[in-house]
Design goal:
Layout: E1 18-19, E2 28-35, E3 52-59, E4 62-69, H1 94-97, H2 164-167, H3 206-209, H4 220-223, E5 283-284, E6 297-301, E7 312-318, E8 325-331, E9 345-351, E10 354-360, E11 362-368, E12 371-379, E13 393-396, E14 401-402, H5 403-410, E15 412-413, E16 416-417, E17 421-424, E18 430-431, E19 437-440, H6 442-452, E20 455-459, E21 465-470, E22 486-488, E23 494-500, E24 508-512, E25 520-524, E26 537-538, H7 545-557, E27 562-570, E28 583-588, E29 591-605, E30 608-618
Parallel strand pairs: 1-3, 2-4, 5-22, 17-21, 22-28, 24-26
Antiparallel strand pairs: 3-4, 6-9, 7-8, 7-29, 8-12, 9-10, 11-12, 13-19, 14-18, 15-16, 20-21, 23-27, 24-25, 27-30, 28-29, 29-30
Helix pairs in contact: 5-6
C-alpha cells in the first residue's frame, strides 16, 4: 500500500500519527510498512535534516503498526498534523506550551493586566476604586432627578384632550353670522366700502308714495294671513306650512333706482342695509329709596358639571387686553377639581345669569393651622388663541383683500375655520396684495389688524367670538351731543378714585404707509388750525383714506385734559356687568359727567357682589 502524506504544520513534540478513531494499538495484529514520499510542501517551512517517523494506524477491529520514513532532497521540518479534521483531544501538561492557564490569586505587585479586585487604600495607585458618596454639587455630572412640572424640560409628553378647534384640520361646522358666506347680507352701520347692488327694502315715509286715504281700524282676524291655532278637530287635518319670506331679487342688469330723501351731509359713501332704524334708548337706572339685588354665583367644571365650592370670585376685563381674567378661593380639598392634566381645566362661572368660560391656569396654596385654601386664577377660553397654547404662523396676502377678510382668514387653518367668529365693528378698508405680513398667534394677528384701524379686541365671556371695537365710537369733542348707553343716578354710584391723566393735545397728525400703494395723509380736527402736529404714524396697512382717518382720529382723541374715575356700584339687573367701551353718564356731587368705560372688575364675597368700572372722562 502506497500512501502520500501531505504535512501542513511543523512538528512540535510527537512523531506518532494516529488515523481514525478505532481501538488502541494493543489490538493490532500484523505489521504494515508504509513508505511515503511527500511532495514539496505548499507552505513555508524551515530547512532541516531528514526525519524518521513511526506511524501507528488504528483501524476498527485490528491493530496495525506502521513505520513511515520521510525522505526529502531538501532539508525541511515535518509538520505533525493529522489529516483528519477532528480527533479525540488528549490532555497535555499546561506548563509546556499552553498560552492560557487557570488564573490564580496574585499579590498586588503582580503585573497581570486583569485580576480580582481587592480593597485598596486611596494612595495605592489604583486608577479605579469604589466611588464614595459626594455632594451633588462637587463633581457629579448626573444625579437623581427631582419631580418637576411637566413643561420644565420635556419635549414630548402624553397627549391630552385639547380644544378641537386648535389643531383639527377639519371640524364640525358651526353656525356663523350671515355675513360669513352670504352673497347678500345685513351690513354693519358704519361700513363704507360696500358696493352691493341689492339690498333689503327699508321703510319709507307713507307720505311719499301713499295714494290711499286715512286707514280705518279693522278687526285683526279680517286682515291676518294666519290666526291663533286651535286643537285638531275630529277627522283628518292637513298641515299647512307658512311660506318663508322670499329674498329680494334685483332686476335684470342690476338696474336699481335709488330714491334719496335726505340731503347730502359730508360723505359720498352709500350705506346699504337696515339703516334708519331707531337708535336704542339709553338704559335708565331709576332712583329708588332702596335697591334689592339677589346675587347668584356658581362655579363648576365644564366637562362634568361638578360644582366647585368657591368662597370668593373675582372677574375682570380691560381695553388693554382681549381676555377676561379671574381668580377664586376654594378649599384645599377641592384642588383635584382644578388640577392641570396637563392642559388647564375649563370651568363655567355664572354671575347673576351671565355665563363665563374660564381656564384654571395657575394655583397658589395657603395652608395654615386649621385652614387650607387654594387660590386659582386664569383667563377666559380666548386664551386658546394666544401664546402658550396657539402656534405662531406667518401670514400674508397674495391678493388684494379687505382688512375684515384678512381677520377672518386669521381664524382659519388651511382655509378651514377653527370655530371662532369675528364681530368686526371698526372701519373696513382695502389692503393691496403684499401689504399684509405678520408672524404670530391668532390673537396677535387680530390685535395687529385692530390696531391699524384704531380699534382693540374684546373676547366674549362664554361664546367663541372676538369683537373688534373702536377706541372711540364717538370722538371726545362729540360726547356732549352723543347718546349715552347707561345713565346712572347719583345715589347708586360710589366714586372710589379720581386720577388725572392729562395728555398732550394735538389737532393734526400724518399717517404714512410703507408700500408702493401706501398713503401719506394728514388727519386734522375739523374747525381747528391744525398747527399742533402729533408724532407721525407709520403703518404698512395705511393704504386707504378710510383707514388713515380712523387711525389719525384715534391719535388725536387720546390727547387733552382727562381723568380716570373709578365708580363702584352693585350689579343691577338693568345694567349687568358694564363692559369696556360703553358710554356712561353719571352724577356726583351735583355734577353730571360722561365718559367711556375702560376696565371692569367684579368681586363677589358671599353674599355681596360689586363691580368697579374705570371711566375716561374729559375735563
Amino acid at each position: 500500500m502506497s500512501v502520500d502524506l501531505r504535512l501542513h504544520r511543523a512538528l512540535d513534540r510527537s512523531t506518532h500519527l494516529v488515523f481514525g478513531r478505532g481501538p488502541s494499538p494493543d489490538d493490532f495484529v500484523g505489521h504494515i510498512v508504509v513508505v511515503a514520499v511527500a511532495p514539496a510542501p505548499a507552505v513555508r517551512m524551515s530547512v532541516g535534516a531528514a526525519y524518521a517517523t513511526a506511524v501507528a494506524v488504528l483501524a476498527p477491529g485490528a491493530a496495525i503498526a506502521i513505520r513511515a520514513e520521510y525522505r526529502s532532497e531538501v532539508e525541511r521540518p515535518l509538520v505533525g498534523v493529522a489529516r483528519d479534521r477532528a480527533q479525540v483531544a488528549q490532555a497535555y501538561l499546561s506548563s509546556q506550551t499552553e498560552r492560557f492557564q487557570q488564573a490564580v490569586s496574585a499579590t498586588h505587585s503582580t503585573r497581570t493586566r486583569y485580576q480580582s479586585a481587592a480593597l485598596r487604600t486611596a494612595f495605592a495607585g489604583a486608577a479605579f476604586q469604589d466611588a464614595a458618596p459626594a455632594a451633588c454639587g462637587l463633581a457629579g455630572v448626573f444625579q437623581a432627578s427631582a419631580p418637576m412640572f411637566a413643561d420644565a424640560a420635556a419635549s414630548w409628553q402624553d397627549a391630552a384632550s385639547s380644544h378641537q378647534v386648535l389643531a383639527s384640520r377639519f371640524g364640525e361646522a358651526q353656525a356663523a353670522s350671515s355675513h360669513v358666506g352670504g352673497r347678500w347680507q345685513d351690513t354693519i352701520r358704519y361700513l363704507r366700502a360696500v358696493t352691493t347692488a341689492a339690498q333689503e327694502a327699508i321703510a319709507r315715509a307713507m307720505a311719499i308714495r301713499q295714494h290711499a286715504g286715512p286707514a280705518q281700524q279693522i278687526l285683526l282676524r279680517q286682515a291676518g294671513r294666519w290666526q291663533d291655532a286651535w286643537g285638531p278637530r275630529p277627522g283628518r287635518t292637513a298641515v299647512v306650512v307658512p311660506p318663508t319670506p322670499g329674498r329680494y331679487i334685483p332686476p335684470p342688469g342690476n338696474a336699481v333706482d335709488l330714491l334719496f330723501d335726505t340731503l347730502l351731509t359730508r360723505s359720498t359713501h352709500l350705506i346699504f342695509g337696515r339703516d334708519g332704524l331707531p337708535v336704542p334708548a339709553p338704559i335708565l337706572v331709576p332712583v329708588l329709596e332702596a335697591y334689592y339685588v339677589f346675587n347668584t354665583i356658581t362655579l363648576a367644571r365644564a366637562d362634568s358639571g361638578v360644582e366647585i365650592p368657591a368662597r370668593g370670585l373675582a372677574v375682570g376685563i380691560s381695553r388693554d387686553g382681549p381676555h377676561w381674567t379671574w381668580s377664586a378661593v376654594i378649599p384645599g380639598g377641592a384642588r383635584a377639581l382644578v388640577a392641570r392634566n396637563p392642559d388647564p381645566v375649563e370651568l363655567i362661572a355664572v354671575v347673576n345669569g351671565l355665563e363665563m368660560r374660564l381656564l384654571a391656569e395657575n394655583s397658589e396654596r395657603d395652608r395654615r393651622h386649621g385652614a387650607d385654601w387654594l387660590r386659582v386664577s386664569g383667563r377666559s377660553r380666548s386664551a386658546w388663541l394666544s401664546e402658550q397654547y396657539a402656534p405662531k404662523e406667518a401670514r400674508s396676502n397674495l391678493t388684494a383683500l379687505n382688512a375684515q377678510q384678512l381677520a377672518d382668514a386669521v381664524l382659519t387653518v388651511n382655509g378651514v375655520s377653527i370655530g371662532w367668529a369675528l364681530d368686526w365693528q371698526i372701519v373696513d378698508w382695502l389692503v393691496p396684495a403684499g401689504a399684509w405680513s405678520h408672524y404670530g398667534t391668532h390673537m396677535e394677528a387680530l390685535a395687529r389688524l385692530a390696531e391699524a384701524g384704531g380699534g382693540y379686541l374684546q373676547a366674549d365671556p362664554a361664546a367663541q367670538r372676538i369683537a373688534v371695537l373702536p377706541h372711540y365710537p364717538a370722538l371726545p369733542w362729540h360726547w356732549p351731543s352723543a347718546t349715552p348707553d347707561i345713565v346712572l343716578p347719583e345715589d347708586i354710584v360710589e366714586v372710589e378714585r379720581t386720577l388725572t391723566a392729562d395728555q398732550p393735545e394735538y389737532n393734526a397728525v400724518y399717517v404714512i404707509g410703507q408700500s408702493a400703494a401706501g398713503r401719506r395723509d394728514r388727519v386734522l380736527r375739523a374747525g381747528s388750525a391744525a398747527d399742533r402736529l402729533a408724532p407721525q404714524v407709520v403703518d404698512a396697512l395705511a393704504t386707504d383714506p378710510i383707514m388713515t382717518r380712523a387711525r389719525g382720529g384715534t391719535v388725536l382723541a387720546e390727547g387733552g385734559a382727562q381723568s380716570r374715575i373709578s365708580l363702584r356700584l352693585p350689579v343691577l339687573p338693568e345694567t349687568g356687568l358694564i363692559l369696556p367701551g360703553r358710554m356712561i353718564e353719571y352724577s356726583a356731587e351735583g355734577i353730571t359727567r360722561r365718559g367711556l368705560t375702560r376696565s371692569l372688575q367684579g368681586e363677589w364675597s358671599h353674599p355681596e357682589l360689586w363691580q368697579t368700572v374705570e371711566i375716561e372722562v374729559r375735563d
